[in-house]
Amino acid sequence: MNILITGAKGFLGRNLVENLKNIRDGKNRTRPSIHIDKIYEYDIDSTQEALEMFCKDADFVFNIAGVNRPKNSVEFKEGNFDFVESLLNTLKKYQNTCPVMFASSIQATLQGRFGVSDYGLSKKAGEELFFEYAQKTGAKVLVYRFPNLAGKWVRPNYNSAVGTFCNNVANDLPIRINDPSVEIELLFIDDLIEELLDAIEGKEHHCEFQGVKTVFTEDGKYCAAPTTHKVRLGYIAECLNRFHNQPETLVMPNIPEGSFEKKLYSMYLSYLPKNKIAFDLHMNTDERGSFTELLKTVDCGQFSVNISKPNITKGEHWHNSKWELFIVVSGHGLIRERKIGTDEIIEIEVDGEHIKAVHMLPGYTHSIVNLSSTENLVTLMWANEIFNKDRPDTFFEKV
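RE: above sequence
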């Protein structure tokens, strides 16, 4: 299969091209039914000769090219109507009736808060060209009306408020939100890419529109990605501020699979400047070694790393309800645990060559001993709750 992408250098185009390459090159094996031979990348600096060759040879066309921030309204027509006309005429010239996708916008509904705009009108006109083309040629046409797109590589200070917010917060710049209660609908790029891959497989999702509301139906005239997120601007800012502070708080917010927060965090990270990619952690050091908190979670405890110098014993305490896992990743040590009120001691030898996780049981005093006289003992530790200095639930008692 040969696939043509117009607007290949833009935000959506770049993401689509790179993901198609992953399939073509066998790096992504989740789409075994898609076999790609050539990926034709067409953009504003491409020649008409290139478009001719691509249209003649393509087995699927993604028309993503468009204009959304023109210098004047004439450019809307040139980018969103005239080019569509040229593309479809070139396909007709070579009698190529392969499936063609058109990237339109929810603004083409000309409804709700969008109203009538030059951009919406130009996209609406482009849609009509596609539907007329389908009637005349019998080609399969997929018209997608996108809401606000978000994700890695969105250009800030251009046409994405969320991209601007991510960029500014990551770079310690202010953001301005006039009304935090305003709700927007976001379609993240990775969800959109999955939908476009579905389209290649003939499994696109069809819909109709009730005003600006997407209503999915099998025989719908339009197409849409099934996963979007409706969220208030104020909440976006709140999330981004938590992300920004994470190197200081060490607290990783809830990011369940498929959640808005997980996707926004991934987007935010893509805007980090070089000097923020790495950040220092506070090491609590003494003559015995060091203890460093690595990561804290809202409801799944915290991770730390403990370094014990040769022949050093650490721990010698117990907890009522807190429990921990010790994982030695380097060195040679001995973990000892004793149930409070008894004399029986459990001993477990550990080393970095045979990594195992060892439970520190509630109600058992425990310690870890570095058995080496020359090497440090490095232990990754997980506790089921974030340490609270006001209620530490930690009581000294020798094993």
